């Protein structure tokens, strides 16, 4: 009896279940909201803002590197917010 049920179940899953899942997600994808012109403008503004911020960060890093030759970007940055010190009297070399 099991020799008959397993192949029938596998064939049913292949020819009914798999196409059902694929077609379900295809219809969900087609029904999803499309990107409007306003969304595209917002994405362009966000991209331009990110590019400007990156340029500013690079400028600050160049200025700091010029003032302190031993400084390298990313090496002195704390790994977690708890490593920030509010006491400005201590130097980083301690």
Keywords:
65% helix; mainly alpha
> In which range does the helix fraction lie?
55-70%
Strand residue content: under 5%
**Total of helices:** 2
- Helix/strand-derived class? mainly alpha
**Number of distinct beta strands:** 0
Largest sheet: none
Distance between the amino and carboxyl termini: 78 Å
Structure description:
- The protein is 65% helix and 0% strand.
- The chain has two helices and no strands.
- The longest helix is centred in the middle third of the chain and has 31 residues, at 37-67.
- The N and C termini lie far apart (78 Å).
- The model is unreliable at 78-94 (pLDDT under 50).
- Residues 36-63 form a coiled coil.
- It holds the Pfam family PspB.
Briefly summarize what is shown:
This protein is mainly α. It is 65% helix and 0% strand. The protein has 2 helices and no strands.
SSE topology sketch:
Blueprint lengths: L1 H30 L5 H31 L27
């Amino acid at each position: 009896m099991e020799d008959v049920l397993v192949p029938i179940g596998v064939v049913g899953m292949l020819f009914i279940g798999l196409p059902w899942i694929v077609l379900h997600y295809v219809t969900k994808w087609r029904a999803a909201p499309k990107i409007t012109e306003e969304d595209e403008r917002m994405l362009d503004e966000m991209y331009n803002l990110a590019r400007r911020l990156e340029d500013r960060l690079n400028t600050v890093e160049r200025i700091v590197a010029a003032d302190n030759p031993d400084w390298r970007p990313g090496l002195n940055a704390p790994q977690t917010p708890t490593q920030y010190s509010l006491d400005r009297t201590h130097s980083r070399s301690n």
